[in-house]
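Tokens as discussed.
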């Protein structure tokens, strides 16, 4: 397997500050990292010479020398990363810069969940994306986002969507590529992407709720993700929302899984109409006023609002981010969502800013790339 060689000490802190908030003046950098101007200059000089940092124009004039200062920025194109999201039936890949800007994307179906077959698909996607790196420079890292539990950034100890148990998937990939590879839970990856480069980057506390194949919950508090192996269990999916709702496969009545997942909604609308329907079809029918679909989507919207209220009442976030492939529910059932939210919030409680992520798997794949970026910058702890 390729070796991660992250920066260390003050160099790492300087690079991280610029990566997330750059360009920054040398004076601001000195304040943030606690170094004197002279020490900062000595530290950053080799980073500039190597091309990792670049001086940019447009800084304020320095009265002491009578010329504009040159803030430091990071050359986001100096490194490129591949992020791949594995679902139960597809692999979605993106190529990103060091700031997680997506510059290319590809996807492949997964007809066979056998680990070696999936590894071949991942390597094919990686090769296809690698040739699109500007200048033909090599990839810096690969990040794989997978639903389930991941150990040591390499082994999928439990992957329910692929029916994997104790699969050393990182080793399978490493046997065929010199590019460093890291695996992570997909919800953790998406939360980190939201934290570092997304809607949550300026929030001290935010909640991420996702709806799609399952129901997910991510939390950042005091600018750090709250992580646990139990993230992979989707515990919030069994949170009770409506006492008269349908039952989930574990017998819970009116829990989040029974009301909010893509399959729950399509099954309920399909049963009501007497024919199979797709997810977007169900939402379109509700938006057009079809009575059965409208009632089911309205109920789901109220339940989604109650879930947001519960998560917010417990964690007191500054921001709520909604994501997942089923997030369009929040748009179609907007009024019902707000009704459910306000019913379970104190009238004097602060209004919750809510941001919707794109409803496709590219965001999840970008999360895989972000985990690779974090590993490159911070190392594996």
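Sequence:
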């Amino acid at each position: 397997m390729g070796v991660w060689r992250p920066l260390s000490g003050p160099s790492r802190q300087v690079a991280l500050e610029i990566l997330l908030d750059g360009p920054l003046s040398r004076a601001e950098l000195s304040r943030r990292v606690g170094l004197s101007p002279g020490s900062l200059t000595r530290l950053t000089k080799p980073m500039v010479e190597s091309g990792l940092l670049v001086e940019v124009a447009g800084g304020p004039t320095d009265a002491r020398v009578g010329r504009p200062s040159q803030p430091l920025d990071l050359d986001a194109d100096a490194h490129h990363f591949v992020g791949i999201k594995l679902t139960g039936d597809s692999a979605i890949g993106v190529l990103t810069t060091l700031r997680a800007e997506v510059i290319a994307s590809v996807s492949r179906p997964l007809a066979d969940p056998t680990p070696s077959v999936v590894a071949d698909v991942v390597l094919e996607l990686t090769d296809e994306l690698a040739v699109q790196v500007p200048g033909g420079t090599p990839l810096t890292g690969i990040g794989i986002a997978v639903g389930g539990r991941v150990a040591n950034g390499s082994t999928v100890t439990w992957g329910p969507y692929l029916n994997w148990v104790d699969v050393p998937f990182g080793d399978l990939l490493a046997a065929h590529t010199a590019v460093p590879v890291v695996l992570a839970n997909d919800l953790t990856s998406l939360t980190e992407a939201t934290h570092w480069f997304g809607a949550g980057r300026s929030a001290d506390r935010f909640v991420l709720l996702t709806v799609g194949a399952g129901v997910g919950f991510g939390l950042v508090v005091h600018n750090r993700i709250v992580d646990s192996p139990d993230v992979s269990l989707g515990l919030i999916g069994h949170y009770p929302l409506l006492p008269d709702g349908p039952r989930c496969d574990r017998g819970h009545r009116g829990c989040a899984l029974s009301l909010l997942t893509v399959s729950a909604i399509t099954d309920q609308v399909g049963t009501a109409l007497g024919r199979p329907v797709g997810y977007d079809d169900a939402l379109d029918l509700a938006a057009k006023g079809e009575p059965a679909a409208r009632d089911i989507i309205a109920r789901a919207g109220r339940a989604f609002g109650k879930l947001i209220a519960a998560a917010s009442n417990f964690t007191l976030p500054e921001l709520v981010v909604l994501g997942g492939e089923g997030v369009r529910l929040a748009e179609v059932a907007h009024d019902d969502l707000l009704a459910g939210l306000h019913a379970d919030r104190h009238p004097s409680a602060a209004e919750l800013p809510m941001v919707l992520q794109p409803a496709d798997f590219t965001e999840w794949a970008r999360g895989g790339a972000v985990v690779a970026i974090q590993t490159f910058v911070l190392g594996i702890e």
